[in-house]
Amino acid sequence: MSPDTPSPARQHAVAACGNPGVVEGPLQGYHHETYVFPLAGEAGAAAATRWKCREPRAGLLWFDRRCFDSEEQLLTALSGRITSIPGITEFGGLRLQRFIEGRTLGALSKSGRPIPGPLLRQVVGLFRELVEVTPETLVVKRRCEAGDRPESGDTNGFLERLVRFTEENVYLSNLDAFATLFEDVGVDGDTFSHLRKHVSGLTERPFCLLHADLHRENFIVDPVQRLWTIDWELAMLGDPLYDLATHLYLMRYPEWQARRLTSQWVRTVEEVRPGSSNGWQHDLRLLMDYKKAQSVFTDVIRAALSLGPEPGPGRRQVSRTGAKLHRILAEAAVPLGVESVPAPDRIARALVRWRRTHGETGTGARTDP
């Protein structure tokens, strides 16, 4: 495609809008090239609804197991069951998501800081609605084969599939490019044996719908303080406690607010589906340990790629990246069986060595979704 030729996503947006001048984008986002616009005939109208048109970015790594064939199909199926999610409309054969006007929760309250009580209550309300959506009542086309879906309640089978995905699709699939870097930071194939042993023995819980990516940038606060949930692409059916563990890990609440949310979550899911919090006192820690371990493999690859080719980053960026990976490795040392976490400067030197070897020849990293 010529540099002057509009991308397919922009072409679709302009066709749906009819006025290139009011198409906004591309918006900031890792996985997709996204444009926002009103539909044809609505531009300039008071409080016109705007819609999103997006296409996957080429050559990106996907590090998460995906369950449903289409986010738009899922959102359509959830209409009337989950409140405060984007609506869907069709135009010219395209399914468009409504663009939620507002600010991300991350823009209002940065990672590590508490969120206001009214917004926290809306987060709990979302979990209430999620646990009400059971595998039997959600009819949406799925990506995975029927034989690769654990039975409801099989929390150990559910987590094993996540561990296996990380091992096969993140670690092994990218080993040719990143083997030396993984070794330099202290992880190898044996770490998955340690991880499996560490997280084994979960209590059974009935499965429900999980968003599986509830972080601050996936919540939008609108002008009237209503909390909307976006980006359902990683949603799946599985262990409800996994959704809480993922949320706590990604949100980085202050400890006191994490405890408050957890107690409210337990009370809420038990009101809706008794047994949904079974064993949480023991299992929540293990599921969060899995998230810490998963982050090591994904963040090592992302950190290396973020340095880019020659002439490369400055010493300050490399030092910051080494310090960040040191913190991530230290958090995951126990579940991965890592006895000694390399110092930040040693990790930084390993990143520089890797960049010198791979910066000009390409990484060979797997980019399949």
From TrEMBL:
Coiled coil: none annotated. Residues 93-258 form the Aminoglycoside phosphotransferase domain. SUPFAM superfamilies: Protein kinase-like (PK-like). It comes from the Bacteria. This is Phosphotransferase. It comes from Streptomyces griseoloalbus.
